[in-house]
Amino acid sequence: MLVDLDHLFANPIFQADRCSINFHFLHTYYAMLIYVLLLFFRKPFNVIGIGLLFHMLTDFINCLIMYSGCKECFADSPAIELLKATSRLLGI
Ligand SMILES: [Zn+2]
């Protein structure tokens, strides 16, 4: 996915135990708001919006799996509140 290009602007580019949600520019809650808005536009914008939101979802699930394995590791993650709330909701 093209959206992961913004991972390239991060330093370091790849860090195994980092949650990309709310960390990278295109993975912020503000960016997601724009992706939701894209859904109301015509093709191909709505399709792009679906793709981007789906990417956020998979990134987030990835974060959740890592978070459930090591909660202390994500204490300073920009998405920690969302991770906490979701894991509480899911009971993990
Ligand atoms: Zn990503």
Question: What layout of secondary structure does this protein have?
Answer:
Layout (H helix, E strand, L loop, with lengths): L28 H10 L6 H25 L10 H11 L2
Helix pairs in contact: 1-2
The protein binds zinc ion (ZN).
Keywords, separated by commas or semicolons:
single chain, 92 residues, mainly alpha, binds zinc ion
Structural features, described:
This protein has about 90 residues and is mainly α. Helices cover about 50% and strands about 0% of the residues. The longest helix is centred in the middle third of the chain and has 25 residues, at about 45-70. The chain is elongated, with a radius of gyration of 14 Å. Zinc ion binds near residues 4, 20 and 59.
